[in-house]
């Protein structure tokens, strides 16, 4: 096979690994329920704990969180649910909240497919390069080039997140949910935003950022060590 073809496969291997690492970290933190439970017990809204502000117990909030997260991974699920909130039986989510969650679910289901595809392509290209005994030094060099570009982009995004999270989060919604403002919810009335208030999302994005960067650096370290060992 021509050298250019090996280089193309090496770039594809590097890019799909980075995409897989990013989507994997996003999926892990977005669906790691102990993280939600910890946030719900430490964050406050208007001087009250989140369960108290909503008007339900911690156990009921844990159950509601599980119900909501499960919805995002099931294209046939419904968000119709009634609970006793502040002593009154009511529908948990409004029509606008349900419509927004349809958009969120569609985005998540697409990300899940992309996660699987990127993982499969990464593994297949890596196996191919190993079988063909492509020099690890070459793969390491190509991965470093891709890594430097991705790190530069994410460090700029990270600076944006930590300097002005509100601006970052608003623009995120404009990009991924264009044409509607269903994501604009009221912390005093809408249960959905009470479950995941703005501070929660700041903590979520921060964790995704740091673990993703850590994953990329780990990949770089493993390639470097393998290259050293192969060189004797």
Task: Provide structural commentary.
The protein is mainly alpha-helical and 232 residues long. It has one domain. 75% of the residues lie in helices and 5% in strands. The chain is built from 9 helices and 4 strands; from the N terminus they run H-H-E-E-H-H-E-E-H-H-H-H-H. It has helices spanning 3-30, 33-42, 50-54, 58-72, 95-131, 136-163, 165-176, 191-195, 198-230, and strands at 44-45, 48-49, 82-85, 88-91. A two-stranded antiparallel ribbon has the order 1-2. The protein has a two-stranded antiparallel ribbon with strand order 3-4. It is elongated. The mean pLDDT is 92.
Please tag this protein with its features.
232 residues, mainly alpha, two-stranded antiparallel ribbon, 9 helices, 4 strands, 75% helix
The coarse overall form would be elongated
By DSSP, the count of extended strands is 4
Distance between the termini: 27 Å
Please work out how many helical segments DSSP would assign: 9
Order of helices and strands: HHEEHHEEHHHHH
The SS-based structural class is mainly alpha
Number of domains: 1
Beta-strand residue percentage: 5-15%
Structural Rg:
21 Å
Low-confidence stretches: none
Strand order of the largest sheet: 1-2
Q: Can you summarize the main beta sheet?
A: 2 strands, antiparallel
